[in-house]
Protein backbone atom coordinates (compact mmCIF):
# COMPACT_ATOMS: atom_id res chain seq x y z
CA UNK A 1 0.00 0.00 0.00
CA UNK A 2 1.33 3.47 -0.81
CA UNK A 3 2.19 5.84 2.03
CA UNK A 4 -0.27 8.47 3.18
CA UNK A 5 -3.56 6.96 1.99
CA UNK A 6 -6.38 5.05 3.68
CA UNK A 7 -4.69 2.49 5.92
CA UNK A 8 -5.43 -1.19 6.50
CA UNK A 9 -8.06 -0.38 9.13
CA UNK A 10 -10.00 1.95 6.85
CA UNK A 11 -9.84 -0.47 3.91
CA UNK A 12 -10.98 -3.41 6.04
CA UNK A 13 -13.85 -1.57 7.74
CA UNK A 14 -14.98 -0.37 4.33
CA UNK A 15 -15.16 -3.98 3.16
CA UNK A 16 -16.86 -5.61 6.16
CA UNK A 17 -19.04 -2.56 6.86
CA UNK A 18 -21.03 -3.30 3.70
CA UNK A 19 -23.79 -5.84 4.27
CA UNK A 20 -23.88 -6.94 0.64
CA UNK A 21 -20.17 -7.76 0.83
CA UNK A 22 -20.73 -9.88 3.94
CA UNK A 23 -23.64 -11.73 2.34
CA UNK A 24 -21.69 -12.37 -0.85
CA UNK A 25 -18.73 -13.64 1.20
CA UNK A 26 -20.99 -15.79 3.33
CA UNK A 27 -22.13 -17.73 0.26
CA UNK A 28 -18.66 -17.74 -1.29
CA UNK A 29 -17.29 -19.47 1.81
CA UNK A 30 -20.05 -22.07 1.36
CA UNK A 31 -18.87 -22.73 -2.20
CA UNK A 32 -20.81 -20.28 -4.40
CA UNK A 33 -18.72 -19.05 -7.36
CA UNK A 34 -21.08 -18.02 -10.11
CA UNK A 35 -23.04 -14.85 -10.65
CA UNK A 36 -26.35 -16.64 -11.13
CA UNK A 37 -25.96 -18.55 -7.87
CA UNK A 38 -25.65 -15.30 -5.90
CA UNK A 39 -28.61 -13.84 -7.78
CA UNK A 40 -30.67 -16.89 -6.83
CA UNK A 41 -29.58 -16.84 -3.18
CA UNK A 42 -29.83 -13.08 -2.51
CA UNK A 43 -32.45 -10.35 -3.10
CA UNK A 44 -29.84 -8.30 -4.92
CA UNK A 45 -30.06 -6.36 -8.19
CA UNK A 46 -27.79 -6.99 -11.18
CA UNK A 47 -26.16 -3.57 -10.80
CA UNK A 48 -25.39 -3.97 -7.07
CA UNK A 49 -24.05 -7.52 -7.43
CA UNK A 50 -21.87 -6.51 -10.39
CA UNK A 51 -20.40 -3.56 -8.47
CA UNK A 52 -19.71 -5.61 -5.35
CA UNK A 53 -18.06 -8.49 -7.22
CA UNK A 54 -15.95 -6.02 -9.18
CA UNK A 55 -14.85 -4.20 -6.00
CA UNK A 56 -14.07 -7.44 -4.14
CA UNK A 57 -12.06 -8.66 -7.12
CA UNK A 58 -10.15 -5.38 -7.22
CA UNK A 59 -9.35 -5.82 -3.51
CA UNK A 60 -7.93 -9.27 -4.22
CA UNK A 61 -10.69 -11.15 -2.37
CA UNK A 62 -11.88 -12.88 -5.56
CA UNK A 63 -10.12 -13.96 -8.72
CA UNK A 64 -12.21 -13.82 -11.91
CA UNK A 65 -11.71 -17.13 -13.73
CA UNK A 66 -13.12 -18.10 -17.12
CA UNK A 67 -15.00 -21.40 -17.00
CA UNK A 68 -16.66 -21.35 -20.45
CA UNK A 69 -14.59 -20.03 -23.33
CA UNK A 70 -17.24 -20.15 -26.07
CA UNK A 71 -19.63 -17.74 -24.32
CA UNK A 72 -16.94 -16.00 -22.26
CA UNK A 73 -18.40 -16.86 -18.87
CA UNK A 74 -16.55 -16.30 -15.62
CA UNK A 75 -16.78 -17.39 -12.01
CA UNK A 76 -15.45 -15.67 -8.92
CA UNK A 77 -13.05 -17.84 -6.95
CA UNK A 78 -11.96 -16.89 -3.44
CA UNK A 79 -8.26 -16.14 -3.27
CA UNK A 80 -6.15 -17.00 -0.24
CA UNK A 81 -6.87 -13.44 0.93
CA UNK A 82 -10.60 -14.05 0.56
CA UNK A 83 -10.59 -17.45 2.28
CA UNK A 84 -8.68 -15.85 5.15
CA UNK A 85 -11.78 -13.75 5.98
CA UNK A 86 -13.50 -16.69 7.66
CA UNK A 87 -12.57 -15.59 11.25
CA UNK A 88 -14.32 -12.25 10.66
CA UNK A 89 -17.52 -13.92 9.47
CA UNK A 90 -17.31 -16.42 12.35
CA UNK A 91 -16.97 -13.76 15.06
CA UNK A 92 -19.83 -11.74 13.56
CA UNK A 93 -22.01 -14.85 13.59
CA UNK A 94 -21.04 -15.61 17.19
CA UNK A 95 -21.80 -12.07 18.38
CA UNK A 96 -25.13 -11.84 16.55
CA UNK A 97 -26.11 -15.29 17.79
CA UNK A 98 -25.37 -14.38 21.42
CA UNK A 99 -26.59 -10.78 21.58
CA UNK A 100 -29.19 -10.21 18.85
CA UNK A 101 -32.58 -11.90 18.88
CA UNK A 102 -34.16 -10.56 15.66
CA UNK A 103 -32.92 -11.85 12.32
CA UNK A 104 -34.66 -12.05 8.96
CA UNK A 105 -33.00 -15.43 8.42
CA UNK A 106 -32.22 -17.99 11.07
CA UNK A 107 -28.52 -18.04 11.83
CA UNK A 108 -26.75 -21.30 10.93
CA UNK A 109 -25.23 -23.71 13.40
CA UNK A 110 -21.45 -23.82 13.49
CA UNK A 111 -19.95 -27.25 14.13
CA UNK A 112 -16.26 -27.93 14.75
CA UNK A 113 -15.33 -30.97 12.68
CA UNK A 114 -12.40 -31.63 14.99
CA UNK A 115 -14.64 -32.61 17.91
CA UNK A 116 -18.02 -32.89 16.19
CA UNK A 117 -19.65 -30.38 18.55
CA UNK A 118 -21.59 -27.18 17.98
CA UNK A 119 -19.29 -24.51 19.33
CA UNK A 120 -18.56 -20.86 19.88
CA UNK A 121 -15.14 -19.33 19.19
CA UNK A 122 -12.98 -18.38 22.16
CA UNK A 123 -10.96 -15.23 21.51
CA UNK A 124 -7.38 -15.44 22.66
CA UNK A 125 -3.71 -14.54 22.27
CA UNK A 126 -1.71 -16.41 19.63
CA UNK A 127 1.52 -15.98 21.63
CA UNK A 128 0.43 -17.59 24.90
CA UNK A 129 -2.88 -19.26 23.98
CA UNK A 130 -4.84 -17.68 26.83
CA UNK A 131 -8.38 -16.30 26.43
CA UNK A 132 -8.41 -12.50 26.22
CA UNK A 133 -10.78 -9.73 27.31
CA UNK A 134 -10.55 -6.26 25.69
CA UNK A 135 -9.16 -4.88 28.95
CA UNK A 136 -6.24 -7.34 28.72
CA UNK A 137 -4.84 -5.68 25.60
CA UNK A 138 -2.97 -2.38 25.28
CA UNK A 139 -2.90 -0.74 21.88
CA UNK A 140 -2.61 2.38 19.84
CA UNK A 141 -1.68 3.76 16.46
CA UNK A 142 1.40 2.50 14.65
CA UNK A 143 3.40 4.24 11.89
CA UNK A 144 0.54 4.25 9.36
CA UNK A 145 -2.16 4.88 11.94
CA UNK A 146 -4.25 8.00 12.51
CA UNK A 147 -7.94 8.74 12.91
CA UNK A 148 -8.16 10.34 9.47
CA UNK A 149 -6.50 7.43 7.70
CA UNK A 150 -8.60 4.84 9.58
CA UNK A 151 -12.02 6.21 8.59
CA UNK A 152 -13.59 3.93 5.95
CA UNK A 153 -14.08 5.48 2.54
CA UNK A 154 -17.66 6.45 1.68
CA UNK A 155 -19.38 3.73 -0.33
CA UNK A 156 -22.90 2.94 -1.43
CA UNK A 157 -24.09 0.30 0.94
CA UNK A 158 -27.19 -1.48 2.08
CA UNK A 159 -27.98 -0.39 5.60
CA UNK A 160 -30.01 -2.45 8.02
CA UNK A 161 -32.37 -0.91 10.54
CA UNK A 162 -31.07 -1.46 14.06
CA UNK A 163 -34.61 -1.55 15.41
CA UNK A 164 -36.40 -3.68 12.80
CA UNK A 165 -33.76 -6.36 12.33
CA UNK A 166 -33.78 -5.84 8.56
CA UNK A 167 -30.93 -8.13 7.59
CA UNK A 168 -28.88 -11.16 8.51
CA UNK A 169 -26.42 -8.97 10.46
CA UNK A 170 -28.71 -6.14 11.69
CA UNK A 171 -26.80 -4.85 14.70
CA UNK A 172 -23.37 -5.51 13.23
CA UNK A 173 -24.32 -3.14 10.44
CA UNK A 174 -25.54 -0.58 12.98
CA UNK A 175 -22.08 -0.69 14.58
CA UNK A 176 -19.79 -0.77 11.53
CA UNK A 177 -22.06 -0.11 8.52
CA UNK A 178 -21.56 3.64 8.85
CA UNK A 179 -18.12 5.22 8.49
CA UNK A 180 -18.51 7.27 11.67
CA UNK A 181 -20.03 4.41 13.67
CA UNK A 182 -17.04 2.18 12.97
CA UNK A 183 -14.55 4.89 13.92
CA UNK A 184 -16.46 5.89 17.06
CA UNK A 185 -16.52 2.27 18.21
CA UNK A 186 -12.78 2.04 17.65
CA UNK A 187 -12.29 5.19 19.73
CA UNK A 188 -14.29 3.63 22.57
CA UNK A 189 -12.05 0.56 22.55
CA UNK A 190 -9.06 2.93 22.76
CA UNK A 191 -10.47 4.57 25.89
CA UNK A 192 -12.62 7.48 24.69
CA UNK A 193 -15.73 7.96 26.83
CA UNK A 194 -16.66 11.67 26.83
CA UNK A 195 -18.41 13.51 24.02
CA UNK A 196 -15.46 15.81 23.53
CA UNK A 197 -13.10 12.79 23.35
CA UNK A 198 -15.06 11.42 20.42
CA UNK A 199 -15.38 14.85 18.81
CA UNK A 200 -11.64 15.57 19.01
CA UNK A 201 -10.53 12.17 17.78
CA UNK A 202 -13.02 11.71 14.95
CA UNK A 203 -13.34 15.26 13.69
CA UNK A 204 -16.99 14.55 12.85
CA UNK A 205 -19.81 17.10 13.22
CA UNK A 206 -21.36 17.15 16.73
CA UNK A 207 -24.78 16.15 15.34
CA UNK A 208 -23.31 12.95 13.88
CA UNK A 209 -21.54 12.07 17.11
CA UNK A 210 -24.73 12.70 19.12
CA UNK A 211 -26.73 10.48 16.77
CA UNK A 212 -24.18 7.65 16.88
CA UNK A 213 -23.97 7.78 20.69
CA UNK A 214 -27.77 7.65 20.87
CA UNK A 215 -27.93 4.59 18.60
CA UNK A 216 -25.20 2.79 20.52
CA UNK A 217 -27.04 3.41 23.80
CA UNK A 218 -30.32 2.18 22.31
CA UNK A 219 -28.59 -1.00 21.16
CA UNK A 220 -27.17 -1.58 24.64
CA UNK A 221 -23.58 -1.34 23.39
CA UNK A 222 -22.92 1.85 25.38
CA UNK A 223 -24.24 2.88 28.78
CA UNK A 224 -24.25 6.53 29.78
CA UNK A 225 -23.60 7.94 33.24
CA UNK A 226 -22.98 11.38 34.80
CA UNK A 227 -19.49 12.69 34.16
CA UNK A 228 -16.86 12.83 36.88
CA UNK A 229 -16.24 16.57 36.33
CA UNK A 230 -19.87 17.67 35.91
CA UNK A 231 -23.05 15.63 36.22
CA UNK A 232 -24.48 17.13 33.02
CA UNK A 233 -21.41 16.07 31.02
CA UNK A 234 -22.34 12.51 30.20
CA UNK A 235 -19.81 9.71 30.03
CA UNK A 236 -20.25 6.73 27.68
CA UNK A 237 -18.84 3.30 28.52
CA UNK A 238 -18.89 -0.02 26.70
CA UNK A 239 -21.31 -2.52 28.19
CA UNK A 240 -20.73 -6.29 28.30
CA UNK A 241 -22.50 -6.49 24.94
CA UNK A 242 -20.25 -3.77 23.54
CA UNK A 243 -17.05 -5.40 24.81
CA UNK A 244 -18.21 -8.70 23.31
CA UNK A 245 -17.92 -7.10 19.85
CA UNK A 246 -14.15 -6.78 20.32
CA UNK A 247 -13.32 -10.08 18.56
CA UNK A 248 -15.10 -8.82 15.41
CA UNK A 249 -13.01 -5.65 15.35
CA UNK A 250 -9.76 -7.44 16.14
CA UNK A 251 -10.16 -10.30 13.64
CA UNK A 252 -10.94 -7.67 10.98
CA UNK A 253 -7.87 -5.58 11.90
CA UNK A 254 -5.73 -8.71 12.08
CA UNK A 255 -6.85 -9.69 8.55
CA UNK A 256 -6.39 -6.18 7.15
CA UNK A 257 -2.87 -5.75 8.50
CA UNK A 258 -1.79 -9.10 7.06
CA UNK A 259 -3.08 -8.33 3.58
CA UNK A 260 -2.80 -4.53 3.21
CA UNK A 261 0.63 -3.66 4.51
CA UNK A 262 1.42 0.05 4.48
CA UNK A 263 4.84 1.26 3.42
CA UNK A 264 5.34 3.00 6.79
CA UNK A 265 4.39 0.02 8.95
CA UNK A 266 1.24 -1.20 10.77
CA UNK A 267 -1.74 1.05 11.44
CA UNK A 268 -2.29 -0.35 14.94
CA UNK A 269 -0.03 -2.14 17.39
CA UNK A 270 -1.20 -4.21 20.36
CA UNK A 271 0.40 -5.91 23.35
CA UNK A 272 -1.12 -8.62 25.54
CA UNK A 273 -0.49 -7.46 29.09
CA UNK A 274 -0.40 -10.91 30.63
CA UNK A 275 2.38 -12.35 28.45
CA UNK A 276 3.94 -9.09 27.26
CA UNK A 277 4.01 -10.23 23.62
CA UNK A 278 2.71 -8.49 20.52
CA UNK A 279 -0.95 -9.43 20.36
CA UNK A 280 -2.26 -11.46 17.45
CA UNK A 281 -5.64 -13.17 17.31
CA UNK A 282 -6.17 -16.83 18.17
CA UNK A 283 -9.61 -18.45 17.91
CA UNK A 284 -10.21 -21.78 19.63
CA UNK A 285 -13.16 -24.12 20.11
CA UNK A 286 -14.93 -23.73 23.45
CA UNK A 287 -15.78 -27.46 23.44
CA UNK A 288 -12.36 -29.04 22.88
CA UNK A 289 -10.01 -26.01 23.19
CA UNK A 290 -8.34 -26.81 19.86
CA UNK A 291 -7.16 -24.05 17.54
CA UNK A 292 -9.87 -23.34 14.95
CA UNK A 293 -9.10 -23.59 11.25
CA UNK A 294 -11.42 -22.50 8.47
CA UNK A 295 -11.48 -25.94 6.86
CA UNK A 296 -12.68 -27.46 10.16
CA UNK A 297 -15.72 -25.22 10.62
CA UNK A 298 -18.92 -26.73 9.25
CA UNK A 299 -21.93 -24.50 8.55
CA UNK A 300 -25.26 -26.26 9.08
CA UNK A 301 -28.90 -25.07 8.99
CA UNK A 302 -30.25 -23.69 12.27
CA UNK A 303 -32.38 -25.92 14.44
TrEMBL record:
This is Transcriptional regulator. Keywords: DNA-binding, Transcription, Transcription regulation. InterPro entries: HTH_HxlR, WH-like_DNA-bd_sf, WH_DNA-bd_sf. It holds the Pfam family HxlR. Residues 1-104, 166-264 form the HTH hxlR-type domain. The keyword Transcription regulation applies. GO terms for molecular function: DNA binding. The keyword Electron transport does not apply.
